[in-house]
Amino acid sequence: MSMRRILFVEPMGAPSNVFAKFMTIPLLGPVYLATMAKNLGYDAAVMNENILKRGILDSELQKADILCLSCITATVDRGKEIAARYRKARERYGAPAHVIIGGIHASMLPDDVSGHFDQVVCGEAESILPDLLEGKLNEHIIKGERISDLDTVPVPDFSLLQGWRKINVWPVMTSRGCPHLCNFCSVSIMFGRGYRFQSASRVINEIERHRKGWVFFVDDNFTVQSDRTHELLEAIMRSRFNQPWTAQVRTEVAKNSELVKKMRRAGCRIVYIGLESINPESLTKMEKKQTIEDIQRSVKIFQSNDIQVHGMFMLGHDPDTPEIFKATSEFSRKSRLSYVQFSVLTPLPGTEVFTQLEREGRLLHRKWSLYDGLHVVFRPRNMSAAELQMGMLRCFNRFYSLKNALRDYIRATPKGIKSLGDLILMNTARLHCFYPAFMKWIGKIILHKWLKQNKAYLTYLEKLKHGDTSAREVVMNME
């Protein structure tokens, strides 16, 4: 008897989100679970539509005895579509179909997906996967328990991921949970406020497998416990792992200058920081527990240690007025941020923001594929939805410009570099200093594509501004 085939799929986002297609980092969940399934004796595989750069084929779906989909809110509509195609493909094949969904959206809104899947997994699935695949769990909605010992989670086998050789940024998780309760975030709801982490030796065992490209520590907050972070950084240096890496941190880590210096020595080249807002009232509203002074200090500290800063801003909180766009752009320019990610406040299911806006009747629709941080899906307090949308786009346009790209290129070019040949001979480890210039150039191109792809949605928001809802049907039919 042949092994049962278990196919794990991460669906692609909507075509309208061209930003997400530039750098693709796979979700770790499907790779973890596929690795576990393989270790249990199943024929396991992972297909990530974003990495494949195409949709999954019916011929690929029909071979799966069990299909497992992992979806965020922006991809759950696509997941429903794949589930329906899978059932039809298995029916034509004359074989039974069994489709399971997991991930953050299903965990927060199981009722939204329950009619489309045979089983819905809420929470962390590692603890229940063996019984789930063996058919010992028959409930329609199943609650997974949080893993207390993260060292028991297997080192992900990326060879199970079709197209894995295209990856040049490797996701590595060293912890789960977040002690903070920002009102727009579902991390602490999904993974808890308790901070669970892997041992330093377990992390080293994993990163040493990635000897090309970058490592991205995908922890929601890499530096929650400074003692533990010091231990991990020292282990990285002892291991002589010399690939560049990046991580997500909060502004407060900059208060520990020794830790920042050690991050740089251990190979950190870029940090992603949730700066969120330069409006003090908005920071208070979102319960971020940081000040403008914290933001300014953190940027300076990282830059002074030769670590580039990728600042992440969220526009459209209730205290924000149209003045926020120019102020945020000016801050980004004056702070010399290497990269900036502007997004609009997005009411993701499970968050306090979602509950509030739904209660107040301010959600524009539930077209989930547009809940991606780039489309305004609610009515702001102090401006129209169209004003918020265009304001965010102006922020992108001001930052990702050819003028700024040239400025960054000139700043990054070391003295003595006089030709392209000199650049080619330059130590590749130092080439990351040119990334900000490159990203500002390519970002301009991506922004142009986004505007072209989203004309219908921008028209809808503009009509909505004038009380005309006639374009809503067009929006609901957007791919």
Number of helices: 21
- Based on CA inertia axes, which overall geometry fits? globular
CATH fold-type name of the largest domain: pyruvate-formate lyase- activating enzyme
Roughly what fraction of the amino acids lie in strands?
A: 5-15%
- Cα gyration radius (Å): 23 Å
CATH architecture of the largest domain: Alpha-Beta Horseshoe
Q: What is the level 1 CATH name of the largest domain?
A: Alpha Beta
In spatial order, strands of the major sheet run 2-1-3-4-5-6
Q: Unreliable segments (pLDDT under 50, ≥5 consecutive)?
A: 423-429
Structural class: alpha/beta
Which structural traits does this protein have?
single chain; 479 residues; alpha/beta; Rossmann fold; pyruvate-formate lyase- activating enzyme; 6-stranded parallel β-sheet
Q: What this model shows, in words?
A:
This protein is α/β, with parallel strands linked by helices. The chain has two domains: 5-143, 3-Layer(aba) Sandwich (Rossmann fold), CATH 3.40.50.280; 168-461, tm_1862 like domain (pyruvate-formate lyase- activating enzyme). It has helices at residues 28-39, 49-52, 58-61, 76-93, 104-108, 110-113, 129-134, 187-191, 200-207, 226-238, 257-265, 280-285, 292-304, 323-334, 352-359, 385-399, 402-412, 420-425, 435-453, 455-465, 472-476; strands at residues 5-10, 43-48, 66-70, 99-102, 119-122, 141-143, 169-172, 175-176, 196-197, 214-217, 245-249, 268-276, 308-315, 339-344. The protein has a six-stranded parallel β-sheet, with helices on both faces. Strands 7-10-11-12-13-14 form a six-stranded parallel β-sheet. The protein has a two-stranded antiparallel sheet with strand order 8-9. Helix 9 (200-207) packs across helix 10 (226-238), helix 10 (226-238) runs parallel beside helix 11 and helix 16 runs antiparallel to helix 19 (435-453). The relative contact order is 0.09.
